[in-house]
Amino acid sequence: MIIIPIKEGENMDRVLKKFKRKFEKAGVLKEVRERQKYTKPSIKKRDEKLKAIHVQKMRNQEES
Questions:
Q1: Which pLDDT band, with edges at 50, 70 and 90, does 48 fall under?
Q2: Geometric angle at alpha carbon 51, from 55 and 30, rounded to 5°
Q3: How confident is the model at residue 36 (pLDDT cuts 50, 70, 90)?
Q4: Scanning 40, 56, 60, 64, which has the fewest C-beta atoms within 10 Å of its C-beta?
Q5: The pTM is what?
Q6: Average pLDDT over the chain, rounded to whole?
């Protein structure tokens, strides 16, 4: 549960901004999207491997 302490006289826009930030950091929306469809563990592993390869290529290009 996300709890946001509200100070007396604090602007509601600022409170909403704090809520949105905490909500995003908690990863609630990301988890909901992941649960919408099942992904086999082998596919997850393959995607992680491809991502790691991509990141490594980018780092090598920066060094060169």
A1: very high
A2: 115
A3: very high
A4: 64
A5: 0.52
A6: 93
Q: What is the mean pLDDT of residues 15-29?
A: 92
What gap in Å lies between CA 18 and CA 6, rounded to an integer?
10
Q: In 1-64, which ranges are continuous DSSP H helix?
A: 12-26, 28-35, 41-63
Query: Domain extents for the chain?
Result: 12-63
**For residue 45, what are its two tokens?**
């592993």
The CA distance from 14 to 47, in Å, is 38
With a CB cutoff of 8 Å and minimum separation 6, the contacts of 23 are 2, 29
